[in-house]
Structures are given as structure tokens and as C-alpha cells.
TrEMBL record:
<comment type="pathway">
    <text>Amino-acid biosynthesis; L-arginine biosynthesis; carbamoyl phosphate from bicarbonate: step 1/1.</text>
</comment>
<dbReference type="InterPro" id="IPR029062">
    <property type="entry name" value="Class_I_gatase-like"/>
</dbReference>
<keyword id="KW-0547">Nucleotide-binding</keyword>
<dbReference type="InterPro" id="IPR035686">
    <property type="entry name" value="CPSase_GATase1"/>
</dbReference>
<dbReference type="InterPro" id="IPR006274">
    <property type="entry name" value="CarbamoylP_synth_ssu"/>
</dbReference>
<dbReference type="InterPro" id="IPR002474">
    <property type="entry name" value="CarbamoylP_synth_ssu_N"/>
</dbReference>
<feature type="domain" description="Carbamoyl-phosphate synthase small subunit N-terminal">
    <location>
        <begin position="25"/>
        <end position="166"/>
    </location>
</feature>
<comment type="similarity">
    <text>Belongs to the CarA family.</text>
</comment>
<keyword id="KW-0067">ATP-binding</keyword>
<dbReference type="GO" id="GO:0006541">
    <property type="term" value="P:glutamine metabolic process"/>
</dbReference>
<dbReference type="InterPro" id="IPR050472">
    <property type="entry name" value="Anth_synth/Amidotransfase"/>
</dbReference>
<dbReference type="GO" id="GO:0004088">
    <property type="term" value="F:carbamoyl-phosphate synthase (glutamine-hydrolyzing) activity"/>
</dbReference>
<dbReference type="Pfam" id="PF00988">
    <property type="entry name" value="CPSase_sm_chain"/>
</dbReference>
<dbReference type="GO" id="GO:0006207">
    <property type="term" value="P:'de novo' pyrimidine nucleobase biosynthetic process"/>
</dbReference>
<dbReference type="InterPro" id="IPR036480">
    <property type="entry name" value="CarbP_synth_ssu_N_sf"/>
</dbReference>
<dbReference type="GO" id="GO:0005737">
    <property type="term" value="C:cytoplasm"/>
</dbReference>
<keyword id="KW-0028">Amino-acid biosynthesis</keyword>
């Protein structure tokens, strides 16, 4: 019913955003499936191609946009008003508490953003500039004044769809031919965002972690170093097996695109898992690589999961995670591991998504003699809920146990504490 229609919402016809007064040039979002949405341009006055995805997160547009896993994607925010708290200065100290940036990487990673109503006026004590000026500085286009609810319903029904944002004089041109759309999932995006050379963060930390960088979010590094880890960041296809004796644990990060492009890393990891018994932890892409090394297949979901409100059910207990509890999580993924019965020997499902029953985590079984966990969600959040943040402490506690043969005390000063179910303030419920 939406095919070939052009939507011109009130804000787009009125030439201005609801919270500002400037006149913005026209822009059109074309979907490869044939629908077009006319709006107004902000940020870089540039036409681009990408993969159109939606996120249900209400806050943290700055963190989402700097997450390298959004590389090549046209990010649609379902929250209508975006930009109202501006953008902070993206510099932080490089010490045991931070990694040189405030956000998730040095700059904007997504190809473009789509919002219902961009806030030109912003207000926050840390804000240094508007969303539009930040996008302009990073040469990233945005489109505002489009019906993001209609776009999201389309993407939910037909799945993640290739798109084009045409800006300025391009906005009135007809939609591109189907063959002109660029498909980022055909490229090895991990190779574009991963570090080219190894480097160290917090080298004086007591537990030595090697991190395979598939496009790591800064908050993963922060979450490790604030708990006392020294982290050596390695390129995604680094030969970890040649240096593994120097480390107390291995971490595999998040990253953009199809995990099949990283089969080389999965095959190297398979050897690591056969020959090395120290703890291994992976998040999102890292979890998919662990799964592929274990013999599971990855598949492309219809529209993936992106947002900060994804409930997952723990199927097994491990460290701070208790079987039978539901944790609310932050997510950004298009691919998932396929549930298979039986699971590969030595492995078991760890979490399952309460909305779509997709696998949200796997772990090595107690009998396997290994300590390996992978989670599809982001325990480090940024943004999102901190329900599962203690998984980083669990990982480092296991690494320390391997290293010292005893479980060390946690440094509570630097570890953000969360309420457990038992310690949470009780809310009186009327009878
Ligand atoms: N955040 C991530 O690591 C995403 C992993 C993978 N690129 C996916 O879309 O499923």
C-alpha cells in the first residue's frame, strides 16, 4: 500500500523543524523496495547510499552514531525528537579510567541519520554543538521531517532495506534503479574499522587481556580497564595463537556487517579454543565469531534488534548472571546464531531473546573444562541499561582465578554498582 507514494509530512512542507526556525533544503529518502519519503536536509549536504535500519533507543543518539557497528547504515530513530541535548566534546583522558574519547569512537560511523524532527535548539551542560553541525563536520547527511513511524513499519514488514538519501537538487530526482543501491553487507566492513596496528590501553593493569578489534566500542575498553585490566587491542585477523601465552584472557569485540567476512578469525579462534584453557568473552560480533568457531551457523535476521530495551532470559547461571532472570539489554545487530538441536558438544545456550526467541548468548558447559562466553547484546551499554555490566567483572574474576589460582577482591571504587533484585528499593504495591 506504501509503494511508489511520496510522503510529505507537515514539518517538511513548513520548511522548518518544530524547534528551530531555519529553512532547510529538501532531501528524499528512497528505499530500494520502491517507497520514497520527502523531508528536509540537515548536516552534510551530500547524497549517500546505505542499509536502512531502525533503532528504538530513546536516548544516546551520540553513542549510537559513533558505534562502529553502524558502519554503512542509514540509521532511523523511532524516537521523534532527536538532537535536543546536542553533542558533547569528544575528548577524554587516556588513563586507567578512560580511553581518549567520551563517545564510542572518534567520529560518526553511520552513513546517515533519519529523524522525525531534528532539534536545532539544544540544551545540556556538556553540549558543545548541535546534532546538525556535528553531522556537517563529519560529512554525514541527515533527513528530518519524515514519518519515521511509517518507515519503521515498512522496515519491520519487509526487513532491513537498502536506501538512498538524495539531498538538495538531487531530492527531486527519480529514485535510483535497483542496481544502483550500494549493499554494505557485501563488504568486509570490519577490515575498515579495526585497528591496523596493535596498541595498549592501561598497560599497568594487573590482568592482561588481548582484545580482537572487530570495531570495538570505547565503552568495552572502558569497562575492562576500569576493572583493572591492561588491554592490548589487536587487529581482527591477528594471529593471537602466536602470542597467547602473554595474556590472561581473550576478548572479542562488536563490529559491523556480516560475520561470514570474518571466518578467518573464527577458524583461528577454533584452534585457540582447542589448545588454550584461559577465559574467552565475546560481545555481539565477537559472540557470533565464538559461535562460528564452536560450529554454529550465523544467519541474517529480518530487521535485527537495535535499541536499549531488549529483554533476554538467562537459561544458565554463571557469575553475576542467574538462570531464570530476565535482563534488559542494549542491542545493535542484524545477524544471529542459529539455534540447533543438539548444540555442539561442550556448548550450551546462555540467553534467549524474550521477544523473538533468537539466541542471545552461548557458553561452554561446565564439563568442557573451558571458560568461554558470548553474548549477542551489549553488557557495556553506552547507551542503555546496566543490568548485565557485571559480566565484565565475572570475566576478569575468572582471568584472575586462572592467573593467581584464587579469586581476587573487586575494586568497588571503580566498578559502577547496580542493584540486584534483592537489594533494589522495594516499591509498595497497593493491594
Ligand atoms: N554490534 C555488533 O557487533 C553487530 C554484529 C553484526 N555486525 C550484526 O549486525 O549482527
Amino acid at each position: 500500500m506504501y509503494r511508489k507514494l511520496i510522503y510529505i509530512p507537515r514539518i517538511a512542507r513548513g520548511l522548518a523543524t518544530s524547534s528551530g526556525s531555519s529553512i532547510l533544503p529538501p532531501a528524499t529518502l528512497h528505499l530500494k523496495s520502491g517507497q520514497s519519503f520527502l523531508g528536509r536536509s540537515f548536516g552534510a549536504p551530500k547524497s549517500i547510499y546505505g542499509e536502512t535500519v531502525f533503532s528504538t533507543s530513546i536516548t544516546s543518539y551520540t553513542e549510537s552514531m559513533t558505534d562502529p557497528s553502524y558502519r554503512g547504515q542509514i540509521l532511523v530513530f523511532t524516537t521523534p525528537l532527536i538532537g535536543n541535548y546536542g553533542v558533547p566534546l569528544n575528548t577524554a583522558p587516556s588513563d586507567a579510567h578512560d580511553v581518549g574519547v567520551v563517545l564510542e569512537s572518534q567520529g560518526i560511523q553511520c552513513a546517515a541519520v533519519v529523524v522525525s524532527d531534528v532539534a536545532e535548539k539544544f540544551s545540556h551542560y556538556a553540549a558543545a554543538e548541535s546534532l546538525a553541525s556535528w553531522c556537517q563536520r563529519y560529512d554525514v547527511p541527515g533527513i528530518t521531517g519524515v514519518d519515521t513511524r511509517a518507515i519503521t513499519r515498512l522496515l519491520r514488514d519487509q526487513g532491513t532495506t537498502l536506501g538512498r538519501i538524495s539531498v538538495g537538487s538531487d531530492a527531486s530526482l527519480p529514485a535510483p534503479n535497483a542496481t544502483e543501491f550500494w549493499d554494505p553487507s557485501l563488504e568486509n566492513l570490519v577490515d575498515q574499522v579495526s585497528t591496523k596496528e596493535p596498541y595498549e590501553v592501561n598497560p599497568s593493569g594487573s590482568i592482561k587481556i588481548a582484545l580482537l578489534d572487530f570495531g570495538a566500542k570505547a565503552n568495552i575498553l572502558r569497562s575492562l580497564i576500569r576493572r583493572g585490566a591492561a588491554v592490548t587491542v589487536l587487529p581482527w585477523n591477528y594471529d593471537f595463537n602466536a602470542v597467547r601465552d602473554q595474556y590472561d584472557g581473550l576478548f572479542l569485540s562488536n563490529g559491523p556487517g556480516d560475520p561470514m567476512h570474518c571466518m578467518e578469525a573464527a577458524l583461528k579462534l577454533r584452534r585457540t579454543l582447542e589448545e588454550w584453557t584461559k577465559p574467552v568473552f565475546g560481545i555481539c560480533m565477537g559472540h557470533q565469531i565464538i559461535g562460528m568457531a564452536a560450529g554454529l551457523d550465523a544467519y541474517r535476521m529480518t530487521f535485527g534488534n537495535r535499541g536499549h530495551n531488549q529483554p533476554v532470559l538467562a537459561l544458565a547461571s554463571s557469575g553475576s548472571i542467574k538462570a531464570g532472570r530476565v535482563y534488559v539489554t542494549s542491542q545493535n545487530h542484524q545477524y544471529a546464531l542459529k539455534l540447533q538441536d543438539p548444540f555442539p558438544r561442550g556448548w550450551e545456550p546462555f540467553f534467549i531473546n524474550c521477544n523473538d526467541s533468537s539466541i542471545e548468548g552461548i557458553k561452554s558447559t561446565a564439563e568442557s573444562g573451558k571458560n568461554v562466553w558470548g553474548v549477542q547484546f551489549h553488557p557495556e551499554s553506552a547507551g542503555g541499561p546496566l543490568d548485565t555490566i557485571e559480566m565484565f567483572s565475572d570475566f576478569l574474576t575468572e582471568c584472575a582465578a586462572h592467573k593467581y589460582g584464587a579469586v581476587p577482591q573487586k575494586n568497588d571504587e571503580t566498578v559502577p554498582q547496580m542493584h540486584t533484585f534483592e537489594s533494589a528499593p522495594k516499591i509498595a504495591v497497593a493491594a
